[in-house]
Amino acid sequence: MDVFDVETRSRCMSSIHSKNTKPEDVVAKYLFSKGFRYRRNVSKMQGKPDIVLKKYKTVVFVNGCFWHMHDGCKYFRMPEDNHDYWFDKLTRNKERDEKEIQELKNLGWNVIVVWECELKTNKRSETLENLVQSLHQHDMHSKS
Q1: Which of 64-68, 87-91, 131-135, 136-140 is the least confident region?
Q2: Rounded to a whole number, what is the largest CA-CA distance in the chain?
Q3: What pLDDT sits at residue 81?
Q4: Is the pLDDT score of 105 beyond 70?
Q5: Is the pLDDT of residue 127 over 60?
Q6: How far apart are CA 113 and CA 8, in angstroms?
Q7: 130: Cβ–Cβ under 8 A, 6 or more apart, which residues?
Q8: Count of CB atoms within 10 A of residue 15's CB?
Q9: What is the CA radius of gyration of the chain?
Q10: Which of 10, 30, 102, 118 is the right S-S partner for 127, CB 3.0 to 4.6 Å?
Q11: Sign of the CA dihedral 91, 21, 110, 133?
């Protein structure tokens, strides 16, 4: 049973954006502060990555735990109301993500997924530091 009435739920859902989200902003601003330059929401690339670091041949997807069905995450719970609709929609999202990530990898791109839950206050610093470390490691490997 939904805790909101239909009108309130509709208003909540319509306020959710697919790009330039707060978690995306956190990652982008951190990368910029560390000297990385990038493009955001590159619509001409497979999967429309949230952040593209061309110099590092790396794309970063900042995924919401609900919309991308983050396995084992406490922030993902399949809605009980209209279950079939949500199951089909979210499953399609997840399958599309997997396909697009594989296609980017096949094209030689390094793909990093940062989950919304990994940007919560208690995990944010570690997640962002690991992201930067991963970019530096990928850069070192690609130069050898």
Answers
A1: 136-140
A2: 58
A3: 85
A4: yes
A5: yes
A6: 31
A7: none
A8: 7
A9: 17
A10: 118
A11: negative
Residue type, 6: V
Long-range contacts of 105-109 (CB under 8 A, 24+ apart): 107/46, 108/57, 109/57, 109/58, 109/59
pLDDT > 90 fraction of the chain, expressed in percent and rounded:
72
What is the 3-class SS of 69-100, one letter each residue? CCCCCCCCCCCCCCHHHHHHHHHHHHHHHHHH
Residues paired with 113 in a beta bridge:
61
Mean pLDDT, rounded, of the chain: 88
Q: Which tokens belong to 28?
A: 């982008």
Here the tokens at position 125 are 């610093």
CA 137 to chain CA mean position, Å: 21
Orientation of helix 22-33 relative to helix 124-143, angle to 10°: 60
